[in-house]
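Dear U.,

For the methods section draft, I wanted the exact inputs and outputs in one place so we can describe them consistently. I've listed the two proteins in the order they'll appear in the manuscript figures. Please don't edit the token lines directly; just add comments below if something needs changing.

First protein:
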Amino acid sequence: MVIGVHGELEYGVVIGRLQYTRPLLGTFQEDSNLNGGESFHGSLGYRLDLSGPLSVGFLASGGATIIRYHNGINGSIGDTFTNVSPQVGVIVAPNYQLSDHFSIQGGLRYYKGFPAGDRGQAIDLADISVALRFTL
């Protein structure tokens, strides 16, 4: 499980978004080799108004994910490594307006990762989210 925060700026039907996400390490299996990580992404897209209070955002996105892990087995720590993977992806974000300031927003994200060097590995990222959105 991960936790994330994002900020959006809308101008007409154009959407800009910055997002930060990090894993909740306590939700991973005890024998997981993950020590931590975070991802940073920026997106630009278009909001399509459907009917009444329902709209859907379609965004192209890019950024990077950084993970820290170790290669120990049977409880040993082993060596610690950091992997950085640049990513490009898409976001589909349905939004249901409850009032002038509150809405329920969903999100489907998929990012394709690429290795950042000879020893790096690609990190693909996909998630589904539901959030209560506050609009100023």
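Second protein (the one for the lower panel):
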Amino acid sequence: MNWWSDNEDDCSSFPGFADCWYSKMTPYAPSTCDQLNTDPACEQPKWTDFTGFNNVQNFYVSWCIWNTQGAFLDLYNAVGDASSPVSDAVGNIVTTLDPPSDSTSPWEYIFDALTFGLSLYSEGTVLFKALLRSLPQTSTLLDKVVFPPGDVDGDVDVWADVAGELGKFISSWQSSIGKAVPIVQNNITAFITLNQNTPLSGIRPPLDGLATTVAQSVGGYVASACLNELGFAVTRAEALNVQSLQEGGNLQWDTGCEDGYDSNGICGGYFFDGTDTYSIVDPNNMEDSQSDVLSTLIGGDNPLTTGQILFTNALQCTQTCGANGGCAPTQDPTDLSVASCLSTARVCTWTWDTYGPFQPGCANLPDSDAVLGAFGVNPCVGTGIYDTSYSVPNTYLGGGIIDDNAPGWWADQVVCNANY
């Protein structure tokens, strides 16, 4: 920028570019646009205040300075507003799932979930995705200051304590956001790069709903991690709409999905993401229904997380890390809006080649001793031995569900024993 080259020496008494510009090129001096202040410390420029030579450029630069400061101020406040919803969501999930008391979570993964929640926020998706993408290009320091995973690398906490510690953690995050403002406002190169790669020259989106989105993002990670600690799995019926299957008839038993999907995509013990049907299963007690757990996690007017985060993201994780998922959450260091394995839940897909149980890759869940049980049809397990079988999973959606050769006792989900 030519103006800075011509005026840098005259700006030595100012912290850097932004305050010097506001002092020399606007009627709003003195100002502190390089700090998290509200007006008039960084007053919004008005078009009528800019006349004469280069008035369009001068207004544009002033607007970008004010809008950049405002965007970080909005983010600072929104992150603070998220503290209570995030803590409540984590506390409710841990209470509901009750993972082993000695199980722990790395704080860096929770932090990844917090920051990725920014790019999921629908009202600000364009701004935040652009912001997250541009930060690694803006400064070698900025992305580490706004999103400082190094502050928590290696730190772990037992699940029971995580909710209580989140408030202090979020306060630290706010402090980091505050430190980012002078970096981007006072360094002309960082300022230009950030504004070239984000829509900060436009109107900032409202952040009223950001707290909910961030809480659901963190909730997705926490719920999936706790399910893993318990040895639970996510089951998936590929390209299957269980409600349509139920309405179509020709089923060997009732799926429990008669009333259609609610606004969260739940029908009975199932979640449908528009393509696949998912449920939760305890491999050691496959006949038990987990519909209450499902409803607690993703149901109601204020769900703790969403089905897309918990289930669909878990499927994407299997495509990223192979096997049946479970890899640690990661963000692309060159584009922080791209995250993998926000949900670390293990995914097992029903097979339609036989009565069940699953496609290859789901024999064991690495985080527990649980084994996804084999089960059969006629007689039990297909071995001829009547007393060596598991009951049919409560939310079974394998090939046997529409096969008229399946024995009648499947409908009652009865464990095979010597009496049959």
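Candidate sentences for the figure legend, describing the second protein: Residues 2-207 form one domain. Residues 55-97 form the longest helix (43 residues).

Thanks,
Y.
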